[in-house]
Amino acid sequence: MNSSEPTQKKISVKQIMSHSVVSVDSSVTATDAAKMMEDTGVGSIVILENAVPIGIITDRDFAIKITAHSYPIDTPVKRIMSYPLISIDPNSDLLIASDLMLTRNVKKLPVIDDDKVIGIITSSDLVKHIADH
């Protein structure tokens, strides 16, 4: 290694992910999910089926799928969620997370360990991390 090159310390997803993740069963209505997002101040909810994460619903899903397609507000979230769920392992490198977000055009990646949601990493988290370092 050239001594003039800075050493890059690998940062894992689990080091900067948020641990506050809201999840609901796939049968919950869009209205109830939207109220939960408002009450908890989050921009997404992970959708579960038999306690296994299968999809995600974001504020954008509400804008596009409910409003643009005139779905009733009591539509189950399973109908409007984004799937299949694009997620990441907690031990993955941040570069992997950013590449996945870029190539799959997503801004939020649930962090899954052993079929359980343990956190979430967002494009905002990545920007904040870069700005802080």
Please give a handful of descriptors for the protein shown:
single chain; alpha+beta; CBS-domain; 3-stranded mixed sheet
Task: Give an overview of the whole structure.
- The chain is α+β, with helices and mostly antiparallel strands and 133 residues long.
- The chain has one domain (13-132): CBS-domain.
- The protein is 38% helix and 22% strand.
- Strands 1-2-3 form a three-stranded mixed beta sheet. A two-stranded antiparallel ribbon has the order 4-5.
- A hairpin with a 2-residue loop joins strand 2 (44-49) and strand 3 (52-58).
- The longest helix is centred in the N-terminal third of the chain and has 11 residues, at 30-40.
Secondary-structure-derived class: alpha+beta
Number of strands: 5
Amino- and carboxy-terminal Cα gap: 22 Å
- The amount of beta strand, in percent, is 15-25%
The order of strands across the largest sheet is: 1-2-3
Number of domains: 1
Shape verdict: globular
CATH-derived architecture? Roll
Which stretches of 5+ consecutive residues score pLDDT under 50?
none
